[in-house]
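Posted in: Structural Biology > Protein-Ligand Complexes

Title: Requesting predicted complex, GMT in pocket

I'd be grateful if someone could produce the 3D structure tokens for the following input. Sequence and ligand are given below.
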Amino acid sequence: MKIGIVLYPTFGGSGVVATELGKALAEKGHEIHFITYSQPVRLGSFRDNIFYHEVVVSNYPLFEFQPYETELASKMVDVVEHEKLDLLHVHYAIPHASAAFMAQQILKTRGVNIPFITTLHGTDITLVGKDKSFEPVITFCINQSNAVTAVSESLKEDTYAHFDTDRDIKVIPNFIHNIDDEKNEFDIEKRRKYAADDEKILCHVSNFRKVKRVEDVVHVFNEVNKSVRSRLLLIGDGPERYNVELLCRELGTCDRVMMVGKIRDAAQLIKISDMFLLPSQTESFGLAALEAMAVGVPVISSNTGGIPEVNAHGFSGFLSDVGDVQDMAKNAISLLSDHEKLELFKKQAKAQAEKFCITKILPQYEALYEEVLSKSKLTV
Ligand code: GMT
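-- Reply #1 --
Done. Output follows.
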């Protein structure tokens, strides 16, 4: 199949999932065309069957806001027509699904029939619960997509709660492309750069937005460090970073907290950690937690949204109510202070992640593509 994948090229979960999906499809022989405004961060170096089409946004002085959606729709029209794509798969509804609908309508007037699939990722749905101004467009796009998928049962339910739609939404969970591949060998020398052998490492990866509650990460760490000598590894960057730095100064933990900023291959650093913290306010899936589990790192998380579908309480880690940093710290200490239990949870975390291996998920997307294509051929 020739598939156009529209995505955000950034470190955000939807972009990571879309890029890894494209890479896996390309490995199976499909021809993949990524369409977005800069090279996806997870794309890496050249690969067979993968093409990248950059959407260049004009900065004509009249525009106070650049018309990205229009440029994107135009690029989709061009790529579909000239690369003879079979279907479009757009990740994140805003504005990818509405741009895809526009491209589809334009192509119809040129005698080209192209179906599009929308994958809902989280904040494209949950954000709308707070900002109703998006609602008419998103409802329309959900109803007009040739198929809709959501990354968790929880997100599917949120979609029905926030939007006036009863259309079928297929849950296809996020996945892990390479479970603990050879690149990510445990590296004791690397670990020693961050912590002494008798110290534990707690880790958090995110875009440091409010929804991630990174300050809770610091509070949990502060409690843990009182009982178990530890270090905190913070990976990523975003609007809350400064507040987090202030909190560390206030608590006097700066010398034990390492903020490494945005890095491309976080798995190598996550792997030297003993525990991953994800105390989010809401999370449709929690890909960062799954990526930690895949390299054998247990997860202490909140029990919100789709996280309980990923992190199995008492098996791959522990779940607590949002904001209950005391409970999170208690669970963390119970694991970190018991060597055998920690080793068991590390193994179990990896076993839980294997349920989300790409080999189980890819066929679900391929089957959906086939179904959508055969339905769209019938309607021509
Ligand atoms: O909100 C983010 O952190 C970014 C966002 C995205 O689309 O890039 O993440 C959402 O999609 C991820 C991939 O499906 C999920 O793993 C995240 O849980 C989800 N974030 C939220 O729901 C807050």
